[in-house]
Amino acid sequence: MKHLTGLSGIPAATITEILDKAALHKKLFLEAENEIPRTLQGKRIVLAFFENSTRTRFSFEIAARNLGAVTLNFTASSSSVSKGESIVDTIKNLEAMQVDAFVIRHSSSGSADQISRITDKHVINAGDGTHEHPTQALLDIFTLRNYFGSFQGINIMILGDILHSRVARSNIFGLTTLDANVGVCCPASLLPGDITSLGVRVFTGLDDAIRWADAAIVLRLQLERTTGGYLPSLEDYSLNFGLTDERLEKIRKHMLVLHPGPINREIEISSNVADRIQPPGYSKSVLLEQVTNGVAVRSAILDMLLNQADRN
After folding, report:
1. Which residue of 183, 197, 224, 301 could cross-link 201, Cys pair, CB 3.0 to 4.6 Å?
2. Domains of the chain
3. What pTM value is reported for the model?
4. Is the pLDDT of residue 312 over 50?
5. Hey, is 204 helix, strand or coil?
6. Which of 55, 166, 116, 59 is nearest to 124 (CA)?
């Protein structure tokens, strides 16, 4: 595997290898940071973010630096892109500076695949349009595996704007590959047309989805959806699809709760549910654990991709 542009088509064995490697990196990151092997010493990694980011960008940067790599931060607004340079020319010019890998976030679906075809450097997709966000899904899956051990018989609900979510797509591909039972829950207006082909169960009512699920991945609702004709109002969405204590307590369902961030509190998720990391309660939040796991997973991916010659 030279690139990681998505989880569609990635075999279970490869996903499992990434998760196992991430477990080792997490142990090093949390328990012996000064002893982390500098396996990427001398490597140059471009963080080419054409969209804003906090968690993804910083976790990639921490991961790369922990492994000894040099990171080169690229922002479109302060680059020649703002003068009309194409993304292809930008990548080619950076490649000519003898970098080793590109971590790409871009608003256009398929941009990471496009870049992987024009460069012989490693390409990692950090989110492209509504297509995929493979490293976010891998850290979600890693977090879930830490709690459940195996995905056999585990029901995972993805709650929110499935239609526009690259996180949802990557999680569906990865979780179904690992034999988890995956369900999606959202208003009918936010369901993709091809949802039945993805091997998931569809819920249009949140109470039924909660009764079924062992864990919920709650997606950020992009607030502009109410002005795009997808939703009648934010209040309506929150009432019918917001994950709250009241709804969980009514069903008396204990549930593990994940969210990729950033959170719209009191819209897609209540503050109580988002912040509860200890019982009592009918939910356990692992939102901050996901952030920590993001460094471990991205460390594993960088290490595996850039050190393939040593592994083969």
Report:
1. 183
2. 12-133+293-311 (3.40.50.1370), 134-291 (3.40.50.1370)
3. 0.94
4. no
5. coil
6. 116
